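User: Please fill in residues for this 256-position structure.
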């Protein structure tokens, strides 16, 4: 690859072992970027790296909810590629529909830690380097569930709502350093995660996917990981150089 929107840029993509993160890592590499493929599931991260191939990608294991692990991931990017321009926070976990009185404190904490605290930790470790360069782009994958609630997704909706507000607060705080911070709100998407919001056998999962999720999308079909990758490329690249604090719904109209 000799030219592309991300030529000469280095990106960390968390959650890149599956679904949207994998699609983002692939597109970024196609566009000439060097990509750290980070995931809790090391095997999955390595599989993504192998699929993309070449020396412009590097797989690392990270737990985005753990301060030390995140620090190591950011240091790894600087060691392997000597640079860091783009951070995409895509790692996340779902919540099975649960009445609030049945939700345990540990379930609540886990969802908030992986979906929200992770953004604090990754940004905290990436920003000192970006500030030195006076340039950077941070893209947080939130959810349309962060602005449009569903019953029983209490902790998940709260975690994504917080991710959205954190995106805006960071956009203002980091603007003087030319670091842009934006978020994408995917709607229900065809990835391994979607079935994990539902409990029950495969038949129930498939029928609930149709009745609950698909039926809520005005454009009439589930979002594909590549749809999110295209939006992430726009926000990560100079195409959006005057865009910060923006929350881009890629949801087939679910948020209207
Ligand atoms: N699928 C949907 O319908 C949907 C809709 C809106 C928003 N989202 C959000 O989009 C993002 C990507 O979701 P997806 O659908 O691609 O899911 P996915 O399950 O396919 O991928 C999520 C990845 O995150 C990784 N991960 C989980 N916990 C981690 C941790 N502690 N540290 C590092 N990596 C970890 C997983 O191993 C997995 O590879 C998530 O933040 C999710 O909440 C998904």
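Assistant: Residues filled in for all 256 positions:
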């Amino acid at each position: 690859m000799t030219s592309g929107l991300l030529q000469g840029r280095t990106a960390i993509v968390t959650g890149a072992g599956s679904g949207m993160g994998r699609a983002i890592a692939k597109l970024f590499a196609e566009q000439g970027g060097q990509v750290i493929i980070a995931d809790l599931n090391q095997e999955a991260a390595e599989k993504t790296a192998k699929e993309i191939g070449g020396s412009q990608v590097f797989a690392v294991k990270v737990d985005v909810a753990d301060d030390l692990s995140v620090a190591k991931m950011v240091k790894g990017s600087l060691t392997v590629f000597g640079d860091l321009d783009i951070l995409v926070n895509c790692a996340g976990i779902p919540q099975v529909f649960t009445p609030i009185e049945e939700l345990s404190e540990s379930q609540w904490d886990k969802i908030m830690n992986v979906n929200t605290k992770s953004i604090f930790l990754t940004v905290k470790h990436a920003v000192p380097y970006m500030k030195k360069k006076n340039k950077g782009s941070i893209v947080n994958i939130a959810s349309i569930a962060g602005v449009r609630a569903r019953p029983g997704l209490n902790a998940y909706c709260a975690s994504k709502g917080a991710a959205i507000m954190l995106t805006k607060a960071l956009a203002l705080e980091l603007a003087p350093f030319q670091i842009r911070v934006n978020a994408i709100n995917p709607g229900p998407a065809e990835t391994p995660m979607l079935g994990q919001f539902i409990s029950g056998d495969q038949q129930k999962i498939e029928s609930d996917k149709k009745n609950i999720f698909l039926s809520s999308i005005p454009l009439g079909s589930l979002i594909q990981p590549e749809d999110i990758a295209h939006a992430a490329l726009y926000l990560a690249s100079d195409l959006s150089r005057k865009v910060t604090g923006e929350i881009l719904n890629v949801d087939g109209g679910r948020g209207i």
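For context: The first helix runs from residue 19 to 30.
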